Prior knowledge:
This protein folds into 2 domains: 2-128; 140-280, Alpha-Beta Plaits. It contains 10 helices and 4 strands; from the N terminus they run H-H-H-H-H-E-H-H-E-E-H-H-E-H. It has helices at residues 2-29, 35-54, 57-82, 88-128, 140-157, 171-177, 180-195, 222-241, 243-247, 269-280, and strands at 162-168, 203-208, 213-218, 254-260. A 4-stranded antiparallel β-sheet has the order 2-3-1-4, with helices on both faces. A hairpin with a 4-residue loop joins strand 2 (203-208) and strand 3. The relative contact order is 0.10. It comes from Paenibacillus hexagrammi.
Amino acid sequence: MNRFRNSMISDGAFLLLILCCFISIVFTAGNPDLYIQNIIFLNAAFLIAVVTYFTTVTTGLILNILFIFGYGTYTLYHTVVVGGVINTQNYFWLIMTPMFTVSTWMLTLGNRQLQQENEQLKKANESLATVDAKTSLKNTLSFQNDATVFMALSVRYHIPLTLMVLSVKYWDEIKRMIGEEQLMEAVQDLSKMGQTSIRTNDSLYLLNKDNPMWGMLLFTDRPGANIVIERLRSRIDERNRTEFAEKYRVELILKIGAVEYHHEEISSPLEFIASAKKQLEFDV
């Protein structure tokens, strides 16, 4: 409902601004004798509108008051001293200039509200999304949901469950050596390699995208996880000697840590991650 209201304000203000421009142009062109004077007032109206757009409506109203005061003084002088007659010309710009300001302010208000709503929707989407858009991997939110279920299954059916976490050694240094685009390609390549190294009933998660860290929930015990670790190390070594050496000009070395789930020691998915991350410190 708010989005519809903001759209109506923005669209209505835009149409009002176009209408004001059309009326002002027709009025200016309709009186050749006062063409220069009308052009000056039209430019003043546009200038106040532009200032209002980039500042606030208060600034626009103050400028309009100054304009009305100045124009009123000019009209009074023209009437009393010169002997001119007050006609439509004298009232037109007193009405049209504030109309430009109001329509511009409404347009700015509507656009800003739409931008704020768009930012809020983006933040809400990021917080609720369970899949990373670029790598198509499940994220931390999805991990918490899945891990809660897997941990309960592990206890109930006595199925061994191991969490393995992976990160890239010297990532901060690598970021300084290759560009942002290649960084994301490296994350995607490593993610694909991780997906092909696990079984279909195991799950891979991207736990941190900025300083890449992946998590793998494996239905196996700690010795079984060692097999996956060796398989990963073998594949990364092979890729470093061939594709990665040519593509990134640096070696991508994985740090791997793993911990088996025991319900007496680990009570939540976040604690599960913390326990696995501690194991990374021993992989030097």
